[in-house]
Every structure is written in C-alpha cells, then in structure tokens.
Write a structure and sequence with these properties.
It contains nine helices and no strands. By secondary structure, the protein is mainly alpha-helical.
C-alpha cells in the first residue's frame, strides 16, 4: 500500500512538473515576463501589449469577415457566355478576381489570428520551457527591453496607422467594385430584354457593359494592392512580436541580433 501511494506521489510530481505548451500564447509569455520583471522592480505594463495582439483586431476582423459580393449568379454567367462571347474573357477574369478577393481577406484574418508556433517550433519550445522554469530574469534583458520601448512603440504606431489607412481605402474601393457590379448587371439585363431582332442593334449597350467591366477590373486591382499592403504590414508586425518573444526566452542575444541558427549548440 505504501509502495502504491509512493508511486502515485511520484507520478503526480512528474505530471505537475511537465509544462503543457498547448495553451502557451503570446499573452502567456507577456504575463509571465511582467511577473518576473516586477520581482526585479521593473513595472513594464502595459508596454508589451503590442506582443499580445494587433490593436483594433476585432474591427479589422469584422471587415474581413464581411461577405464579398457575388458578381453574377450562375444562370446569368452561362447566358452571357452564350450570348455575348466578346465579353466572356473579362467576365471570367472578374469572376476569378472575386474569388481572389475573398482569399486575400482570409489571409488577413490568418495574419490577425497568428498564434505562437510553440508546438511546431521545437527550438522555441525548449527555450520557453527552460525560461519558464527559471524564476529569475537577467537584468540586461530588462534594461534592453525598457530602453527599446520608445523606438518599438513608434514602429508599432506606424504599422497601426498604415494598416488603418489601407483598410479604409480598401473599404471604399470594395464599395466601388460592388456599385460597378450593380451597373454591369443592369446593362446585362437591358441586353437580355432585347428581342432577337433588336439584339444585334444593341451594340451601344454592349459597349457600355464593356466599359463597366474595364472599370471593375481596374478597381479590383486597386483593391488587391490595398489588401496586399495590409498583409505585408501584419507580417512585419508579427515578425516584431516573434522577435521580442525569442529575445525574452533566450533565442536571441539582443532584440536587434539575428536568431540563433537552429544548428548551433544551445544548452538546455
């Protein structure tokens, strides 16, 4: 009986001693860092809040989750292909661009929801486990992070402002695209209401539809540029978050240094 209890005690100790990294997030590391820094007399809250999540996360997420308007329904799409072959190429391109638009918004969502890759990155995981177990923290790390805050906050503010500007521009362009969609559909409806004897005489309507399609393609390209800019900004921002985490857990010698090569010997 005593042996059984001893085994249970040992197993409990081992389980408690293990670190479950499945739930370790950017927020987890920032909170742990604040506690360690506080013990050294450093009150750095909320200076590292930029690591936790991109500001205005919910607002941007709401915009990206909004539906992308359908250009044509399937029935009308097939009818145009059969009736107006001269417009088919542009219509197919616009249709594919609509799919691409949804894909770019999804990429922004993934960038906003970027999670700490602690399970997939074995080096990061080992570094975190070592750092988490150590209740102490190097004063040099605290001082460097404290001294870097002004420059880092300025860098973050630039990312945030540019992201806001590009998303607002994307909103306006997206609205333009949707209005052109409505105009194009009206033109197509006007063509289809012509009878067979007058359809050949409706060249001016077809020409107008062609001009609208050209405008749609132009606006879609402008929208792509804005969305790609947001994706790039969020990528840079996530890189900055990772840089600080890697420095905190000991994978970088300084905030500005390169991450240690995974093939270098790292003592754990």
């Amino acid at each position: 009986m005593k042996l059984f209890i001893s085994i249970l005690t040992l197993l409990s100790f081992l389980l408690i001693g293990q670190i479950d990294c499945n739930d370790v997030s950017f927020s987890t590391i920032v909170d742990q860092f604040y506690r360690k820094a506080s013990k050294k007399g450093f009150d750095l809250q909320p200076n590292l809040s930029f690591i936790v999540r991109f500001p205005y996360y919910k607002r941007i997420l709401g915009k990206c989750n909004a539906p992308v308007k359908e250009f044509l329904d399937h029935t009308k799409f097939l009818r145009i292909q059969n009736t107006l072959p001269s417009l088919k190429k542009d219509i197919v391109l616009i249709y594919n661009n609509t799919i691409r638009t949804r894909s770019l918004y999804d990429k922004i969502i993934r960038a906003l929801e970027f999670k700490l890759p602690i399970e997939s990155d074995k080096i990061l995981k080992k570094s975190y486990e070592k750092w988490e177990k150590d209740p102490d923290i190097d004063m040099a790390i605290l001082n460097e992070i404290k001294n870097s805050m002004i420059a880092t906050q300025l860098e973050c503010s630039v990312y945030i402002e540019r992201c806001r500007e590009h998303m607002n521009a994307a909103d306006k362009i997206k609205l333009n695209v949707e209005e052109f969609f409505d105009s194009a559909n009206t033109s197509f409806d006007n063509i289809f209401t012509q009878n067979s004897t007058t359809l050949n005489n409706a060249k001016h309507i077809v020409q107008e539809a062609g001009k609208i399609l050209a405008s749609i393609k132009k606006e879609q390209n402008k929208l792509f540029i804005m969305l790609y800019k947001v994706i790039f900004i969020l990528s840079f921002y996530n890189d900055l978050r990772m840089t600080y985490v890697e420095y905190i857990v000991g994978l970088r010698d300084s905030i500005t240094s390169e991450i240690r090569n995974e093939y270098e010997e790292i003592h754990f």
